[in-house]
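Journal club prep — side note

Before the paper discussion, L.F. wants everyone to see what a predicted structure for a comparable chain looks like in token form. Sequence:
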Amino acid sequence: MAMARAGFCFLAMTKTGSTAVERAFQRHAELVVRRPPRMKHATARTFDRVFVPVLEFYGHPRESYELVCVVREPVDWAHSWWRYRARPGSEGSPQHTGGVSFDEFAERIVAGEVDLGSSSNFVRVRAGRPPVERVYRYEHLDVAAAWMAGRLGVDVPAMGQVNTSPPAADPVAASTRRLLEEHYARDVVLHESAL
């Protein structure tokens, strides 16, 4: 979502409340990408290659706005994907995780059989290009929303829950947590350094 006149563009990392952010702020945006999902969830590199030239054409050079995104603690993020892929109605999809334990799902991630991407790759930019200037933690989505509202000069909108994963009954096993934290080590560092 581009709100370049207000000095920022929001990159929609998957499973971080991006649909709720979109619904709350879309009326203030100059550009909103909803579909296809790969375009909606464009990485910083894709944004730089595809959308920066469009915004420049319309009078918004890259140095005139900040890139903003939200990242989630990587184990919680993977767990949310597992729950989301197990939701009712997704049966028959090759990505369906019904009947697959989270431990098995985590092992498939580490083995490279399941590729969810990663937040550290999502924010990575080409050498010499401007970085993602503001990275907020998912658990502080309200702080990100307040910052965006402040830049827009509007009241902080209500952030409803949209496109959420079903709740899980069991906590993540310590051994699975360690396995994923090692696999997503760069993402752990990014999340810890986020606002």
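L.F.'s comment for the group: The first strand starts at residue 2 and ends at 3. Keep this in mind when we get to the figures.
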